[in-house]
Amino acid sequence: MPDSFQKLRLKRGEERRIRAGHLWVFSNEVDVKATPLTELAPGADTEVTDFKGNVLGYATVSPNSLICARLYSREARHLDEDFLALRLAKALALRERLFASASDQPFYRLVHAEGDMLPGLVVDRFGDHLTVQLTTLGMDMRTEALRAALHKIVQPRSILWDNTVSLRSLEGLALDRQEEGPCPDTLDVPENGCCFTVSMSEGQKTGWYYDQRPNRALMQRFARGKSVLDAFCYAGGFGVNAGRGGASSVVFADASKRALAMARHNLQLNAPDTACETLEGDAFETLKQLRDAGRRFDIVSIDPPAFIKRRKDHKEGLAAYRRLNLLAMSLVQEGGLFFTSSCSQLLQTEELRSCTSHAASRLGLHPRLLYTGFQGQDHPVHCAMPETAYLKCLVCTCEKF
Ligand code: SAH
Prior knowledge:
This protein has 401 residues and is α/β, with parallel strands linked by helices. 28% of the residues lie in helices and 29% in strands. β3 and β4 (55-61) form a beta hairpin. The chain is globular. It starts with 5 loop residues before the first strand and ends with a strand. S-adenosyl-L-homocysteine is lined by residues 204, 209, 212, 232-234, 237-238, 254-256, 259, 282-283, 303-305.
């Protein structure tokens, strides 16, 4: 069996990160004299060795990508239907443990790529319906095996193959979207005792952002009797949790009209007594207008899209986070709470903290950090791969002393 693998050999010294548990090989780490990338079959199963020929693991290759190989196993296994089924069963068993006593079952991220030792695969589960994103050539080529494995392990009624993520272009893959089975237009997603109606056909990401679930639960806890601003609200995640927790009013802000319609509907569904206002437009502008109009809120939450997507965007992105955090914190009522999130993997938690302290010092406030949250546990972080940890959510009090 091992003989049927093509080989990829690393240069001397380049095996260290992989020995420490990381799963990626970068193209400049390959000994291209011994194993020219141009001669490797794209997507095929590959044995990765160090410069002496010691086996490091088994990977699929994308010879034209910067990340030219991603390990899926340390053992000599092919990435076929049986192997995928095994990994999916493990991913499922973890979620069943995590959500054993929760009413949010079975609504969760079922597969978090490398966090579940399945590079290139993201699966979100909405009861009997799945949304799948394939981001590597290796995984894309195994669509049929994956489909069979998903039916074996999860038996979904429908699968939305949402291959519209821009990451695919780095692997030379086309963007497309296919529905298999009766994919519902809208779905009801339970979360923290709330119910969210989300549009699958017109939604964002995979339809719902499961990653903020634990952080939104905290919003619910703090919201009784409070006025809340939920900026970058999408379908109302933070604001609806606030409503459910007894908020007196929620203002939703987003650039998307559809998102705001969903947010309004979801607040009405879960907290009909909470006053609701929606503000459409660029959040930077919206927040400025609120500030200039003298509006203040007991709780402000910001949850923007990633401002730092590539390393070279770091400086500009950090500056945008700083501006946004300053604007948003200026809307917090004295003694109120500030929820600030970032889903940029390349922004460190410490840097987000520095955005809040910078804003507070400009506003003459003393911020105290009450909570540092991350992506929910159904998005497990591979401890050797910082790339799998991306979301942070800080909650601070903003007071004058
Ligand atoms: N807080 C949400 C998720 C936010 S996703 C939740 O808990 O589910 C980011 C949102 O920001 C999207 O809804 C997107 O429409 C919105 N958005 C992106 N750029 C924006 C901008 N410049 N101004 C306002 N909203 C923006």
